[in-house]
Specification:
The complex is a heterodimer of chains A (546) and B (519).
Chain A (H helix, E strand, L loop, with lengths): L5 H17 L3 H24 L8 E9 L4 E7 L1 H19 L8 H20 L3 H10 L2 H10 L4 H32 L13 H8 L4 H19 L7 H8 L2 H26 L1 H27 L4 H22 L2 H33 L4 H6 L2 H4 L1 H15 L6 H15 L1 H26 L15 H16 L12 H4 L11 H19 L1 H12 L2 H4 L8
Antiparallel strand pairs in A: 1-2
Helix pairs in contact in A: 1-2, 1-4, 2-3, 2-4, 3-4, 3-11, 3-14, 3-22, 3-23, 4-5, 4-6, 4-11, 5-7, 6-7, 7-9, 7-10, 8-11, 9-11, 9-12, 10-11, 10-13, 11-13, 11-14, 12-13, 12-19, 13-14, 13-18, 13-19, 14-17, 14-18, 14-22, 14-23, 17-19, 17-22, 18-19, 22-23
Chain B lengths: L2 H8 L4 H6 L3 H8 L2 H10 L1 H19 L6 H26 L3 E3 L4 E3 L1 H18 L11 H20 L3 H19 L6 H32 L4 H7 L7 H17 L7 H8 L2 H8 L1 H17 L16 H21 L4 H26 L2 H25 L13 H4 L1 H15 L5 H17 L4 H29 L13 H19 L2 H4 L3
Antiparallel strand pairs in B: 1-2
Helix pairs in contact in B: 5-6, 5-8, 6-7, 6-8, 7-8, 7-14, 7-15, 7-18, 8-9, 8-15, 9-10, 9-15, 10-11, 10-12, 10-13, 11-15, 12-16, 13-14, 13-17, 14-18, 15-18, 16-17, 16-22, 17-18, 17-21, 17-22, 18-20, 18-21, 18-23, 20-22, 20-23, 21-22, 21-23
Classes of the chains: A mainly alpha (546), B mainly alpha (519).
Chain lengths: 546, 519
């Protein structure tokens, strides 16, 4: 446990080392990055092994930093942060395994990648809002470069959009936090002497004395700001474009942990500090979360680009997280936290299969073009991984998505049965778009049929032309037969490059994690529920006992 | 009320000051004995060191530089200049905040010491950029004028007297006009110098008129007495005087609507001159006007923290800030020229610093000083990178930065730090500067009045600003280099300067208390 801050320090040190190693050779940078990620994850797991859940944030480091503004260097952890720190280590490791093919400027890639991870660890461990915000912003900027330099489709647009959305969100958060700080320093109404502080616990105490209007205003700023990064409905548009543009490792991180930063901020800062504000905006938030679940699911249902399907499914699944937070009963919130973990793992795996295993080999992500290929035979490992991840994503029992979404739905029932019913529609839509994606991508052509049927479909012709163009642009194409040729459509297509060991290792790691959380949900639920009993959340969560 | 101002404002002016109502600086020479000269020497020792340094630079170049190459002349001039700056800094630091000097013509308080040291440091970092530049034909003269300008900054930082303040601003400004137009090989430079000079001359005339009105109303020119004498004065001339003074102020810090010179001057001037205009000059200007507005005219401040506004200079400063935030940030979005972009970003930053002026009455000068000093570091760095690229190829358009990561990794890395600091990304100093200023403004009255709303607006604009800052970094770090691009040679001293700037930005960003605790 006391070692937990070393996740942050090791990762930042590793970023520097990776940059230096990258000047020697890409392989050295990769090795340093993997070693760093493993070390960080190892520290997190070691801390988790010795972790006894407590109903409070357990201090790791707490010393004065900028006394003029009452800012402390205060790191602390509870069951929620523990869950997410473990997830971060896992996602970082898997992401690096799936970035093994990055050769161009590898040192810089892994340095930025690890800087992002370091910021994410920091956010999950901060107990001082200023520190939280510093780490939060450190995690934003590397994303721009990761996507703009190493990304694919429309990358500069996607990168700029993502970073501007994130930064605009963080500007809202900054405004809300500074306002709360100023109000706390002014003493609120009847709070006695004002306190100059950014500490989560002290701000929460001071915020109890703010007027409801103040709380509502601060909540609106902070929650909206964080919700942008969590992909809440009207602010989600950065997510699909950003995910699609990002290189595989970065989209795994984006979906895996960065969106969780937003949700975690909503919970820890927004709900934790301003419970009265949550009460005021609850109906709006529930409605937005539900809209997000269903709307993003429906959009995913009609996407032609496989990565966009996954991108929108991410938004839909994050809608469940936001729903759990907005409903704010202990059961729903614990479900939301588990859903953060679950989605981090599953979305990571889906992006890995689509972005790395399929796209890097076939150079197309168009469903119509993929349909033509007997992918199931060409890439059996990818097919199995994708089917399992799809099942997990649909909420199949045995995988982590099931207990998480179940807890959210049950928690929402108390708020209103109608909400649960609407969310169940979302679950059905999720099953539909996942099955469609699995079917069209891997099982569209089993190699048994003559493989020409797809050509009659007008959309398929269009998209295969698109795929061809894209291929022409990509000089390093490995698939030398165009999808329009009959050879590609037949079972006798040339074999694609086999799945490499880093990919297999990464996929197995992620599968193991989702199975573990799905088969032993009580393990993580125990951590999360104990943390939710902390006084920090008592004002917000009054939906009764678990 | 911050103790600094409480001391200054709370002390009633002694009877002598009002009775003689004379100009202290002038009476000194007539009626003073040896003691007064000793005091003069003590108070102005740093400035003396700078002037001696400047003369030495010229003298050495005249006698020893005849046979030397241009490169070694530049190195020699820079070395003497750095030595003079170090000497001045040492003298300033040793004397410490010693209080009023020369019948309150100078107020050597913490702010003065801080601003002097900051200006010396920024000037030294700028000077280090010079060696190895092939464009620089007269390095000794250039260095000497930089030192004269620094003498002006140094006096501005401590001036507690309208006349001394005006003279020091003019000394600094005249030097800067020359530096701006120094590059005789480019017509741009001459144009920039002329524009800067014409704007500056007009603004100085306005300001001088304002000062003379203040003198006429108060019968005193030292700022301490000025505040005391004007406390019950409701003359209609006071608003006129305030506005005239603020014109000069707005020009000096490039606030809207007195900003028009900035893009042209930054574009045409030699990069190191632009760096000086944007960094040390701004820091010293803020120090002087902080002293003029808060201890001097604090009774005329009015109120911009709540509605209805109370008339005074504070609402005017708030309007200047609003305009600067809008014009600076939106103007920068449209720029394709990297220097003009930096100029508009400077205007936007001036908007935030004006908010710091509003907050300084309650929060003290710490946040504003931190902001101005770290902004100066980032700007010197950014112009330093521009000046180093310029040695090989023109560096005007954003596209001229393309592929910098390949042409020179160190330049790209340091530019990354400078630009992100300007954008306000933690853990760099630019972030904490903004944070501290906004926190100070919001503590005045929360979101209950125009000042709080301005802070909110400035926070919102920081997201807009990221767009144009990333546009610079996109070229430098993401875009591929042009086909004929060569590796940029990197002379040692300029590289040292850039590395120092970047390291300081990171260090001060992580440990802002090192500066904040001094005020």
């Amino acid at each position: 446990m006391p070692l937990l801050p070393w996740t942050i320090y090791l990762t930042f040190a590793g970023a520097l080392l990776a940059y230096l190693a990258g000047r020697q050779s890409p392989g050295a940078a990769r090795a340093v990055a993997l070693a760093t990620a493993l070390a960080g994850w190892g520290v997190a797991l070691a801390a988790a092994a010795g972790f006894t859940p407590a109903a409070a944030l357990v201090d790791l480091v707490n010393c004065p930093w900028i006394p003029q503004l009452g800012i402390r260097y205060h790191l602390a952890a509870d069951g929620i942060s523990m869950t997410l720190v473990v997830l971060t280590g896992l996602a970082a490791t898997a992401g690096i395994l799936f970035s093994w093919n990055i050769d161009e400027r590898a040192g810089e890639f892994f340095a930025l990648y690890l800087a992002l991870i370091g910021g994410v660890y920091g956010v999950f461990l901060s107990a001082d809002v200023f520190l939280f915000f510093v780490f939060y912003e450190i995690a934003i900027v590397p994303k721009y470069f990761l996507i703009a330099k190493w990304g694919s489709t429309n990358r500069e647009y996607g990168a700029m959009k993502l970073v501007l959305y994130s930064f605009a969100g963080s500007a809202l958060v900054l405004a809300g936090v500074l306002w709360a700080h100023a109000a706390a320093a002014a003493g609120g109404s009847g709070a006695g002497a004002g306190v100059t502080t950014f500490s989560l616990a002290e701000l929460a105490r001071a915020a109890a004395h703010f007027t409801p209007a103040q709380q509502a205003g601060m909540f609106a700023l902070v929650f909206t700001g964080f919700a942008v990064l969590a992909g809440l409905f009207p602010f989600h548009t950065w997510a699909p474009t950003g995910h699609v543009a990002a290189p595989t490792g970065a989209s795994m991180l984006l979906a895996g942990v960065v969106m969780k930063l937003g949700a975690y901020g909503c919970l820890r800062v927004g709900i934790g500090l301003f419970p009265a504000g949550l009460e005021f905006f609850q109906p709006v938030l529930v409605a937005l979360a539900l809209t997000g679940i269903v709307y993003a699911g429906l959009v995913a249902l009609v996407q032609e680009d496989l990565k966009f399907v996954i991108g929108y499914s991410s938004v839909s699944h994050m809608g469940f997280v936001m729903l759990g937070l907005a409903v704010a009963s202990p059961r729903a919130v614990s479900g939301a936290v588990l859903q953060m973990f679950s989605h981090g793992v599953i979305a990571g795996l889906l992006f890995a299969v689509v972005g790395r295993m399929i796209y890097e080999r076939t150079h197309t992500r168009q469903l119509a073009a993929l349909r033509a290929l007997p992918l199931f035979r060409l890439l059996p490992f990818a097919a199995v991984a994708f089917v399992l991840a799809g099942l997990a994503s649909m909420g199949m029992p045995g995988f982590s998505g099931f207990p998480a979404e179940l807890a959210i739905l049950v928690g929402a029932w108390r708020y209103s049965p109608l909400v649960t019913l609407a969310a169940v529609v979302g679950v059905l839509v999720a099953a539909a778009f996942t099955l469609r994606a699995v079917q069209l991508s891997f099982f569209g052509n089993t190699g048994a049929a003559d493989g020409k049927e797809w050509k009659r479909h007008p959309a398929a012709c269009q998209t295969s032309r698109f795929a061809q163009n894209e291929k022409r642009r990509d000089a390093a194409s490995t698939l030398d037969t165009a999808p329009t040729s009959d050879a590609a459509a037949s079972a006798a297509a040339p074999p694609l490059p086999p799945i490499t060991w880093p990919e297999k290792a990464g996929a197995l790691l992620l599968l193991a994690a989702t199975l573990f959380a799905g088969l032993r949900p009580g393990f993580l639920f125990h951590w999360i529920n104990t943390a939710l009993e902390s006084p920090l959340f008592q004002a917000a969560l009054k939906g009764g006992a678990l | 009320m911050h103790p600094l101002f409480a001391i200054i404002c709370g002390t009633p002016a002694p009877a002598g000051a009002t009775a003689t109502a004379a100009i202290p600086g002038l009476t000194l020479a007539a009626g003073a004995g040896a003691g007064a000269y000793a005091e003069l020497l003590r108070a102005l020792a740093p400035e003396a060191a700078l002037v001696i340094g400047a003369l030495l630079v010229l003298g050495f170049d005249l006698f020893a530089g005849k046979r030397a190459t241009r490169g070694s002349r530049a190195s020699m001039a820079v070395c003497i200049g750095i030595a003079a700056l170090a000497g001045a800094a040492w003298l300033t630091a040793c004397a410490g905040p010693s209080g009023f000097a020369l019948q309150r013509a100078l107020d050597i308080d913490k702010l003065a010491v801080g601003a002097r040291l900051g200006a010396y440091a920024l000037t030294a970092l700028t000077l280090l950029l010079l060696p190895g530049s092939s464009r620089q034909r007269h390095p000794a003269e250039y260095t000497a004028i930089i030192l004269f300008a620094t003498t002006g900054f140094s006096l501005m930082a401590a001036a507690n007297n309208l006349l001394l303040g005006f003279l020091s601003i003019e000394l600094a400004s005249l030097s800067l006009y020359i530096l701006t137009g120094f590059d005789k090989t480019r017509p741009d430079s001459a144009e920039a110098g002329l524009k800067y000079f014409l704007f500056g001359g007009t603004a100085a005339a306005f300001m001088l008129f304002g000062f003379s009105l203040l003198y006429g109303l108060a019968g005193a020119i030292d700022l301490t007495s000025l505040g005391f004498m004007l406390r019950d004065n409701f003359s209609p001339l006071i608003p006129v005087a305030l506005v005239l003074v603020l014109v000069g102020f707005g020009f000096k810090v490039a606030a809207v609507p007195f900003h028009l010179w900035a893009p042209d001057a930054y574009q045409g001037a030699p990069a190191s001159a632009a760096a000086l205009v944007a960094s040390a000059s701004k820091l010293a200007g803020f120090a002087f006007f902080l002293r003029l507005l808060w201890p001097g005219l604090h009774r005329l401040a009015g109120d911009a923290t709540a509605l209805p506004l109370a008339a005074g200079w504070m609402p005017v400063v708030a309007v200047l800030s609003l305009g600067s935030l809008f014009v600076g940030n939106l103007g920068a979005l449209a720029q394709t020229n990297v220097r003009r972009l930096l100029a508009y970003s400077a205007i936007a930053h001036a908007g935030v610093m004006l908010l710091g002026i509003i907050a300084a009455g309650e929060a003290g000068v710490g946040p504003l000083f931190y902001y101005a000093a770290t902004y100066g570091l980032a700007t010197v760095g950014a112009f330093g990178v521009v000046s180093l690229i310029e040695r090989d190829a023109p560096c005007q358009n954003l596209a001229d930065l393309a592929g910098l990561w390949r042409r020179s990794p160190l330049l790209a890395l340091t530019l990354f730090v400078f630009v992100l600091s300007l954008a306000g990304v933690p853990p760099l100093a630019g972030f904490f500067g903004k944070f501290a200023v906004f926190a100070a403004v919001l503590k005045l009255n929360g979101l209950g009045g125009p000042a709080g709303w301005l802070a909110l607006l400035a926070i919102a604009f920081s997201a807009v600003a990221l767009y144009y800052y990333l546009a610079i970094l996109k070229q430098a770090l993401v875009a591929s280099p042009p086909k004929d691009a060569k590796r940029l040679p990197l002379p040692a001293l300029p590289a040292l300067s850039l590395a120092l700037c970047a390291a300081l930005l990171l260090f001060l960003g992580v440990f802002p208390s090192l500066i904040l605790s001094r005020f």
